[in-house]
Amino acid sequence: MPAAGARGGHPSGLASVNQSLILHASVIGLFAAILALAQVGRALGRRQPATQADPGLGVVAAAVFGLLGLLIAFTFAAAASRFDTRRQLIVQEVNAIGTAYLRLKLLPPPAQSELRNDFRQYVAARAAIYRKLPDVEAAKLELAQAKALQDTIWEKAVSASTTADGPHAALLLLPALNEMIDITTTRTLALQTHTPAIVLGLLTAVALAGALLVGHVIAGAEAYSWVHVLIFAAVLTATIYVIVDLEYPRTGFIRIQAVEQLLAELLESMK
Question: Which domain covers residue 8, as residue numbers?
Answer without folding.
Answer: 3-269
